[in-house]
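User: Please predict structures.

Assistant: First:
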Amino acid sequence: MLKNTGLVLLLALGMASCKKDKKTETPTPEPVPVVSISIDDLKKLSTGATVSVPDGKKISGIVISDATAKNIDAKTVVIQEAADKSGIIINFDAAQTFAVGDEVEIDISKQTLAQINGEIVLDKIPLTKAKKLNSGKTIAARATTADEVIKNAASWDGTLISLSSGLLTGGNGKYAGTLEFTDTKGNVSSLITSGATFENKTYISELKSFTGIVRVNGNAIRVDMRGEADAVKADGAIVYTYTEDFQSGVNTTDYKAASGQIWPLTTGNWMNANIYYDFSTPKTGDGGFLTAGRKYIYLYGDVAKLHRIITKFGNKLSGVKKITIKIAGSLDVSNNNGTTFDPTTNSYIVNVLGLKREANPISSSASGALIDDVTFNDQGSFHTITIKIPTAADLLSKGWTQDQIDYFMQNPNFIFRVSTTISTNIGGMFPAVIEKIDFGFDVKPTWAP
């Protein structure tokens, strides 16, 4: 009887022990299902400088940034859901190699959503959280204008857009630093990252289209190119510019009295067809708008009030399409003979003529105007005058003969003529000052370096 009682007690203690052990076990939590969230909805979660994305969230999109061109940080990728949907910048914790057109999925559970310089970005995301689902996908760039980019920068940040028909400027003509693209509606900046594969290459200014990713940096709205191919040159755009800056000009002993002199300058031989010229650093009065120590050409004119310089390049300029002149009225009064320039009644008149035949000296019958007169009535401020070289049909309509047209097209040389409306004679001149003359080609000449 005692043995049976002991057995019962042991069984009871064992059962009690089992029940106690079961109570101390921690139940295994069910995994949180990872579900997709749109990029637009993700951005709505950004209510502070940094927030943690809720558990169980992932996003997907098409890569629109180009890691190979290196115009973006190596750890950064930009994805967009679709052409008409949102995009986002993602900063990984390591360099990434996703290609343009890759479809990627990123687990963003409990990751950081940050506001950085006006952009909402996924920041310091472990690269292991991203995987490629597919490749060869495309996102069509949104066709728009610069002013619309500015208006919609917040919602378009991290998306691909395309601007049309404009000018790219800055960087001294090279892909460097911060550039600016201007269309008919406004302008946006574009950052060239140090180390980009196309950094410091010469760009073509006249563009048919300019494509890039909208980025926000404080108050600055950018459209950052992915690579050099995002800048598409306009039809007939200038691809090579040949510049005469007059730095090699040297005055002769009779520069105040001679005409018909030949100057061997950087671009070639030029001829003086006026009485009084001067290759000079800024004269008294011009220091406020000219660069100290730089040389300019001053044209004082003759008794007919004409200032003329002529190219004698032979056929070197064959194929030239555009000429740009940077010119100003000088404030130098050392030779005004007491005459005052009155901007309400006086002006400078600029024209460019083409040579119809070889002639020395140059006569009026040997040349013809290529443009209508361009006038300005101020001093101390540069004006940029751009002319498009007329076609053969244009010249024919101006009354040129076919022989004259053929001569000019084969040997294009030019007379740059400046005059003033002031009636005065020698000793009472108001000089014009030229900083440079650019000759633009739409095909790089064979002689160009």
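Second:
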Amino acid sequence: MSDIHYGRGYVYSIQYHLVWCVKYRHDILHGQIDTDVKTLLKQIAIDNDIQIVEMESDQDHIHLLIDCKPQHYIPSIVKAFKGVSARLLFKKHPELKQHLWGGHLWNPSYFVATVSENTEEQIRSTFKIKKRNEVSYVLRHKASSFRIYPNQAQQILIAKTIGCSRFIFNHFLSLWNETYRNTGKGLTYHACATMLPHIKKNEETNWLKEVDSIALQSSLKNLSNSFSRFFKKQTNKP
């Protein structure tokens, strides 16, 4: 239950549940970047006299449960969290601009809900079980959508790299866009397969070295075919 706070002439208990996404839903909130984002948000909350009760990230979006004062204005709170964190994170990790076209870290929209005594416990429970549910979600929905059907050993490996399927998709979509802008042509399946050895050298994708090669090649072929069908329908370059 949220604590009761006392001001000069008023008593209050105000909590909000905030959610916003990374621009283009890119999966960047992991490792050091995820740690830095959370550190920045905590400092922004302190600077604006806001208490973060719970905070959780999920690869491409942020959840916050915050305790506010009557003087706080939700659009201003969101602007502070998103604007300051984006500016400072880009300064610390300039390489992010290569993946986020237009130089924006966060999607301009956001979700906000008031929190009652009952919903506070529900939100807290959601934060606690979120990480446990991520693994099964990736295996059931993400991996199957990219035609990757892992055996038990591969499931353990994929579970250690949450969001692996979306990482492959986002990586090749970025390469496809860049190639299409420069040449007017997209990447072929063979071009994607040629790039695979270079991707495997990336520390973030060590798990690719052990994924079944046939399943992985099938995944790449499906991706390249999907991109081809998409871009053939476009009248303008993305």
